[in-house]
C-alpha cells in the first residue's frame, strides 16, 4: 500500500504578522522621520539649551552652570534690543511686501495672455535660485559705484550723480535693501499660495456677487480675500519662521552694517557664538527666537481656526 506524503506547512514569520497590523506598519513607516527630527533637530536644540545655561566659550570650554545669567546679560545689552527690532522689521516688512506682490502677481497670472505658461514657470526662479547667487546679483545692483538702479535713474533724468543714493551705506536704505531682496525671494511662494486659494473659490459665489453688482475690488476684498485667509495664514507662518531665523541675506550683503543697522538675531547669534567664540551667549541669542516664534505661530493658528469657513 502506497503512502502519500502530506506537504508540511512552512512556519510563518512572526514579523510578517506584526507588519500586517496597521498600527505597527504606521510606526515602522513614521520611525525614520521621527528619528531624523530627533537627531538633526531635537539633539541640537537640547545642546543649545545646555550651552545657553553654561559659561562655555571656545577659549574656556567649561560646562559651569550659570542659570539664566546669559539671557539677562543679552537683554541688558542695548545692541541686542536694536537687533531684535531689526529682526521684526526685516521679517514682517518683507512678508507684507511679498504678500502684496504675490497677490497682484496671482491676479495677473489668472488672466489669459500669450506665453502665460512660460511666465508661470519663470516666476518660480527667485524661489529656486540659490540665495548666494541671488544676493551677489542684488549686491551689484545696489553697489555704491556700479549700481544699475542708480545708473537707470540718472539716465532717465530723475537723479543726478550727486543725488544718487548709497544704498548699502545708509542705515535706512540698507534695511530697505534686505527687505526688498527677501520679499523678492518670497513672492513666488506667495503667488503659488494665492493661485491655489483663488482657484479654490467656487465660481458660483463670484458669479452671484457679480450679478448683485459687486465690482472687482469689492469681490476681491469682501468675498475672495476672507475665503482664502486661512490659506494665506499658513503660507505666512512658513514665511515668518524661515525669515525670522534667516541670516544668509544679511551675512552676504551687509554683514550687519552699516553700524549694526541690519543685524538680525540669526546673524548676531552666528557672530557671537561662532566668530567671537562665545558659544554660551550665542546659543542664548539663538534660543531667544524660539519663544517669539512660538507666540507668533500660536496666534496665527488661533486666527486660522476662527476664520475657517
Automatic annotation (TrEMBL):
Topology in the lipid bilayer: Multi-pass membrane protein
ABC transmembrane type-1 domain location: 84-302
Transmembrane regions: 24-53, 88-110, 122-141, 172-202, 223-244, 283-304
UniProt GO cellular component terms: plasma membrane
Gene3D superfamilies given in the database record: MetI-like
Signal peptide interval: none
Family, similarity comment: Belongs to the binding-protein-dependent transport system permease family.
Protein's recorded name: Sugar ABC transporter permease
Organism field: Bradyrhizobium zhanjiangense
Taxonomic lineage: Bacteria, Pseudomonadati, Pseudomonadota, Alphaproteobacteria, Hyphomicrobiales
